[in-house]
Amino acid sequence: MSLKRSLFSVLLSSLALVGCGSGAAGQPGEFHDERDPIVFPEDTSLAADGGVDGGNPYEVRGSRVMHYRVDIGDFTEPMDPFSPNLKAFTLSDGGTRPLTVQTSPDGTFRVTDAPAGRYYLQLGTFYVVSSSRTMNLDRYDLGRRDRVSASSIPVTVSASNIGPRQPGEEYLYLEAISSNLGSAASLSTYVPEGTTAVDKLPMDYSSMTSTEPYLVDASRGDRLYVNQFAVRDAGTFSYTTLDRFFTPGPLSLSPTVSTDLSGTFQPAPQYTARFEWWRSRFEAYQVQVHPQSRPYAQWLSISPTPWSSTSWYGYSGELMYGNFSGITDLVANITYGNPYPFSWGTVATISHRFQVTATLLPGTTAGGLYGVLSDTRPLSVATAGPIAPRITPPWDLAVDGRSAQQALTLGSLTPRITWKAPLVGTPSAYQVRISRLAVNGTRTDPYIVATLHTTSTFVDVPPGILQPGQKYAVNVSAYLTPSASFATQPYVLESLVDIASAGTVSSVLSAPAGLALAPEPLFEPEPSFEPEPGIKSSRQSLMRESLAVQH
Predict the structure, then answer these.
(1) SS3 (DSSP) at 259
(2) Element (H, E) at 49
(3) How far is it, in rounded angstroms, from Cα 405 to Cα 408?
């Protein structure tokens, strides 16, 4: 294997990175407009995905290429062809039959003995269930490939013209954004109320997008925006918006020596967006999420899309965000700050989140699973007319023919999960997330053990996912992706600015107990070596909730 990896390194170094920009010598504002647009293949319908393409009917062809964006352009590089993570199999006689996966240094792969019908591709806990003869497993990310992380990064801030905070609030919260690094970090500490300037004030520097923060390196072209937020009162609701910012001079962060971020905060350019949010139409689907669900939170945010208005690579914080509640339709004028270049785009995201109390284990009062209706659109589109559901939850969720929205004991560890198509919208594909439920004090904590991607309205759970005697719950989400073939590109969610989704949730599903007299040890599937496909707004909401708990 070491020889193979050495050969791969030589091959990879000989492959020229394909850039869409005009070259490293220019400045971002000079070359961005010359970028070639990101073009997605034409949409693949559910019927087309279920068919068999021309050529060898027993072969599946695909690609695994990383598309990434830095300040000087867009690039691609093949993923490691000798990675053992990509697997393929079919279901046969209650078990799995492995298929042969051949990978190439250019990032392509072939499944040479796939049957003409359905097969499974597996990456850790993520499964693609398909009949298509082509599959695109490309990934999309913001930031340079040679970035380095550290478990902790000592940072101080020297700044003047710090904005006011809420009365009695002694918590100073800032965000540090670097598009070249693909980094969004929070800086936080407590300061006396009314503080308007600080000098080398130590602050906690934590990543909002990765387990460990990345080191800013000026020699690699990294630059920072340091942003401060403010709460604005709109009468019937309030929201948080980017209010002021500064850009420190070129600097590099060290894991051992404290670095000072210094500057004078200046007001961010202000813009106003008018939303007509038909909340009543989203809230009307609460019962379809689950009969025992209850409204939990509504979310509205405006986010920047670095270096493009037609694609959204990575996460660079938000320009505004707010939690809302209520079922009445809302017409609102939102004023927000945006310090970024005009070549960056903006998207608006709304979501309606419902807590499914039927997924709470006995003795717990919080946690469990949530059903979500979410919609992300370019800001110009979101403000052009009413925002109403484009896709609604699947319905009639069942396991082996029995309603899954009542507590069940499963008949086997490999059940068939079925549902009916949404009443509104034609889904591009579905994702089925299976979560193991565990008691943590008074909380029910869900742990995702498998996500299955399919265009069918059923999926058979492969062996090894469900464990005897454990409690589970299932979330089936329908996705609408008008500009991309989500059917055969499950990771394209990482780059879209136009996407809607809606999910339905089961009750608690109990796996049958094993036959052994002694309790069997719990076996958890290995987590995916890469994140499962997901919509960025979910990560935003979870991040905000985490901060609220911490502070």
Answers:
(1) strand
(2) helix 46-49
(3) 9
